[in-house]
Design a protein that fits this description.
It is a single chain. This protein is of the alpha/beta class. It folds into 2 domains: about 250 residues, pyruvate-formate lyase- activating enzyme, CATH 3.80.30; about 70 residues, Arc Repressor Mutant, subunit A (Orthogonal Bundle), CATH 1.10.10. The protein has 13 helices and 17 strands. The chain has a 9-stranded mixed β-sheet. A hairpin with a 3-residue loop joins β12 and β13. Bound molecules: iron/sulfur cluster (SF4). Iron/sulfur cluster binds next to loops.
Length: about 350
Amino acid sequence: MIYIHVPFCKSFCTYCDFYSEIAEDNLYGQYTDQVCAEIRRRAGEMTDSPKTLYFGGGTPSLLPLSSLTRILLTLEECGHGGPYTEFTMEVNPEDIVERGLPYVQSLKALGVNRVSIGVQSFDDELLRWMNRRHNAQRAKEAFRLVREAGIGNISLDLIFGLSNLSDKVWEDTVDQALSLNPEHVSCYQLTVEGDNVLAHRLETGEYEEASEESCRHQYDILCRKMADAGFVHYEISNFAKPGFEAVHNSGYWSRKPYVGLGPAAHSFSGRGRSWNEANLTNYAHTEESLSVEDEKVETLMLALRTARGVDVDFLHGNCQDMVLFHLLKDGALVQEGRRIRIPEDHFFVCDEIIRELI
Ligand code: SF4
């Protein structure tokens, strides 16, 4: 599993807390040199189970095709080239429409077989408020182009839980997403984190966080509509048509080792975690090993967010039986064979349930 962070954006979204720099043509060459050097340096850490490649950001669709090709050739040279079981590229709808069908066809020719489109909303007013570059019509156009290029696995990203998102607009956004017939949908509840425009608005009283009740209601709307459309709710924020569950992200949740390349990218070796500094020109790599307790907490936090849950022996060995008994009795956990999981109607409060278990 290989993750490559592309830390460039054309503008910054109101709510964003990811590391990214304003895109400038003269930065791509230097960035690509550094990522290629890092591939050569860390090739020995890369594993092929599962064999996935994920370009995330930032905005990977800003990266020139020549840079993307150089990175792929370097992976090839180091024994980790394609074809990949899953090769995902996160894209911004506006880039897809601007660069057109030939660009997406080139991505496909380079081996991309899954495209994740950052739609966030189909409401133009809300998109402007988020400072997204695209509007609803451009998002639909981008989807059409990706499909026309022959990409058979398309994921859409949506956001809910904003105080200025009405239930009606949210229902409409989910309906419009479904009408495009994607294979996968990721929906994230907005959180105000870090030092961004939204955090500043919250501080000055220009923005008020949505109530927990309204977030929960929007999550319930989402779960119902996705189930009606035949999607599997396989992780708290992720829905897939059967057989289209994300292979790469599922690897994160089952704690498979992965190598993250590029500024601000994180890695997991199976025993410890490491991360690159958020610095475009010279990023240091820091490593940290995990204690047995850390591993236990991570396993619970990641696995219990998925519909697969966790092995019953793991829970019995690591959690208090009395707590487990009560959570099972109250329906906050369910047991099926050797697995224990949080049922969908308790996903929204999974953090509380996990906290009780820890
Ligand atoms: S949400 Fe994505 S596109 Fe927007 S600023 Fe953050 S990384 Fe860039």
